[in-house]
Amino acid sequence: MEFRDLKKQYQVLKPNIDLAISEVLQEGSYIMGKQVMQLEEQLAEYVGVKHCITCGNGTDALSLILMALDIRKGDAVFIPNFTFFATGEVVSFEGATPIFVDIEEETFNMDPIELEKAIEEVIQEGKLKPKAIIVVDLFGLPANYEVLEKISQKHNLILIEDGAQGFGGRIGDRKACSFGDIATTSFFPAKPLGCYGDGGAIFTNDDNMAELLKSLRVHGKGSCKYDNVRIGMNSRLDTIQAAILIQKLRAFIDYELEAVNKVAEIYKRELADVVKVPHVPKGYYSSWAQYSILCENEKQRENIIARLKQKKIPSMVYYPKTMNQQIAFGSEERVKKVFEVSERISKCILALPMHPYLTEEEIKAICKEIRSTICK
Ligand SMILES: *Cc1c(COP(=O)(O)O)cnc(C)c1O
Fold first, then answer.
1. Residue 242 and residue 35: Cα distance in Å, rounded?
2. Which of 10, 99, 190, 204 is deepest in the core (most CB within 10 A)?
3. For 244-263, what is each residue's pLDDT tens digit?
4. Which atom of ligand 1 is nearest to the CA of 191?
5. CB of 91 closer than 6 A to ligand 1?
6. Which residue owns the Cα nearest ligand 1 atom 6?
7. Phi, psi (5° rounding) for residue 290?
8. CB of 83 closer than 6 A to ligand 1?
9. What integer pLDDT is reported at residue 336 of this predicted model?
10. Model confidence over 157-196: pLDDT tens digits?
11. How far is CA 66 from the centre of its chain?
12. Ligand 1 pocket test: which of 87, 187, 235, 241 has the largest number of ligand atoms within 8 Å of its C-beta?
């Protein structure tokens, strides 16, 4: 059994994907070919924003935004304490300071109450200038944007949605990657919408911002690539990856997103009485980048992992370390603070196999092993 069965997905989509790749090879526009623009149009339409700007990966997508916003040394950027490293890394990369914010126990997403507290603290301390918030849609579930957007407006901060895991999620009719002032996603193979290499995208309704980002992703180009008006990056989505994504986006919209939600339902039915299964708030829809259960404690998690491994069922811990525990961020006072919820959750969370091609039999087999480990 695979944790995320990308090979099975390829077998299903093979005729379309092989054809799409071979078209790119024959056309010869390997960089910024027409498929890149086609994909950007389709993604913007799906998400419901004016502009989509693709780029090299989800990390660059965040970095390009921080560059465009001129975020630098002396600026504070608030990020959830429980996320993939890149969310905080990009802030430090620009020389700014990531301020970690604890998460909600129920959703694993940034806690708005903790965010307010963190902002007040930074203002009170008076050393850093609060500039932006990067909110993550962890494991595919959109964060609480109704409240988070109000907080960012109240404090005049830019709200960036890190939708690397969130693509396909919704709150009511609003789709992930349309929240806040500007949003990103990643096409890393294992993300909800993945390509066959690295890829990423930025979403915005702001015309000027879109123009600036298009310049920054090609060495700060002006009227052309050899007219350079600012310092930028080299971060484009390959034409081959765009061609693959056009095919994958169709499958994602047609049935994959529904299929992962079906998998989540079966897991819930089979497991809700023995472990804490993920909570999806009313009106929210997840794209299930991960299906993460909470075990009772570290020991129980070890037992479940061992039992699953014995039966050749993969499982993963996302994330064994919280942001404040990553030595890369140094050991200043703010890192030494205790983040009760995220630190506790990192010790008992466990992600189970999740992808659109899991069968009911496979899910039941996984759940049976978990149940028999717990109910000895
Ligand atoms: C994967 C991920 C990223 C980075 O995306 P890459 O395409 O791997 O650079 C950023 N933020 C979060 C929350 C992620 O899960």
1. 6
2. 204
3. 999 999 999 999 999 999 99
4. 1
5. no
6. 58
7. -140, 155
8. yes
9. 78
10. 999 999 999 999 999 999 999 999 999 999 999 999 999 9
11. 17
12. 87
Rounded Cα distance between 22 and 27, Å, is 9
Side chain identity at residue 373, one-letter code: T
Atom of ligand 1 nearest to the CA of 138: 13
Rounded average pLDDT over 285-292:
98
Question: Is residue 162 in contact with ligand 1, taking CB distance under 6 Å?
Answer: yes
From 165, 185, 316, 322, mutation site for ligand 1 pocket: most ligand atoms within 8 A of C-beta: 165
> pLDDT tens digits, residue range 97-137?
999 999 999 999 999 999 999 999 999 999 999 999 999 99
Determine the atom of ligand 1 nearest the C-alpha atom of 198: 7
